[in-house]
Amino acid sequence: MNRRDFAKKATLSTFATLIGAEIVFGSRLMEGYSPLALQNPDPFKMFNKHKDMIVLNDKPWNMEAQAHLLDDKITPNSCMFIRNNGLVPKDNDANKWTLTFDGESVINKKTYSLADLKTKFQQHTYQITLECGGNGRSEFNPPAKGNQWTVGAVHCASWTGVRLRDVLKDVGIKKSAVYIGYHATDLHLSMDPNKEPISRGCPIWKALEDEALLAFKMNGDDIPLIHGYPLRLIIGGWPASVSGKWVNRISVRNKIHDGPKMTGDAYRVPCEPVAPGEKVKDEDMCIIESMPVKSIITYPKSGAILKEGKALNIRGHAWAGDLGVAKMEYSIDFGATWKSCHIEKPSNRFAWQHFKASVNLPKKGYYEIWARATDSKGTSQPMLLPGWNPKGYLNNACHRIAVKIN
Ligand SMILES: Nc1nc2c(c(=O)[nH]1)N[C@H]1C(S)=C(S)[C@@H](COP(=O)(O)O)O[C@H]1N2
Ligand SMILES: [Mo]
Questions:
Q1: What is the predicted pLDDT for the residue at 16?
Q2: Domain assignment present for 86
Q3: What is the pTM of this model?
Q4: Is residue 216 lining ligand 1, measured as CB closer than 6 Å?
Q5: Nearest-angstrom CA–CA distance, 359 and 314
Q6: Are the CB atoms for 230 and 213 separated by under 8 Å?
């Protein structure tokens, strides 16, 4: 049986039911999505994305990676997922760009040009894992509305900029400061200029961390427009929605920021666990903070067909929000037994950690390889979907790939 036949058969039988056809050999486009040939403009060309990226929505643009596209230690632009809540801003002239600090808890409102930021403050570079809070949403049942992310709404790029802390110090903030909220130039889907598509933030202690950046470079170059050119907030460990793109204003608040997508079901989960499908009162919802421990197998590609008698070298990455990853394991028997992987130290806090293992698959046949990370507090990934929540956030269930030994 050649690879194609195997793929077809597999999609119809085992792979499809066990892992989900979408992940293994799924079509690149969601059901009901118009064929690419009819698309104008072509998002793959427009955003310089790899042909294996998956388009989830075009208004606004949302695209995700597949696991095998995330094999690089530092994710290249071509394989970085895109998540937009509104329309990509058009007027992004870096020479005219300004960043204003305002809010109840600034001593005086202050505005910087991009050149001010670049020349007045020391520059720092960090690798930061950014995962969408809704990564893995497609598995929830009852289903959650929103982009049906599978595993690919995560990336770890290298970001260069100035520390938000250094700039906040220069601005001068009052003792009353508890939270920051970003504002950006993307347009609300309604095209109403008075509405913001998203304006989120984090507690002031988080904004003052070394790795909290106002970034103007990604992987050594100007940030691509779709990822926030010319200025982006980078906050590691928390849902990527905190890392505002196209940022032109930061409000220093004396209360929890209350911009769009800070309230209701957005980026919030039940404070106490609920049954699948249960209605949750607004006051019983809590803002997502640190993301949970998670990992992804990036090599081999799920569906690989391998020769018998050769060890299989698997690899991938693991991350754990504000924590580190202390242990990485794999299983080839559906979690009955686990063996350890080699896991590297992160290049800096909030960077994903690379793992590898040499796997012996004892005989011919179909295997699933499962990966499980454990964070520095001893909490592991669940093998099955964790707690249901109305918007389908925080699915950190173990990733698994299917391989066949011939
Ligand atoms: N201004 C602005 N910033 C934003 C968003 C947005 O829609 N507008 N989306 C957020 C969300 S929900 C995510 S997951 C990340 C995605 O970043 P990326 O598109 O660079 O991968 O950006 C965040 N920052
Ligand atoms: Mo997101």
A1: 36
A2: no
A3: 0.91
A4: no
A5: 7
A6: no
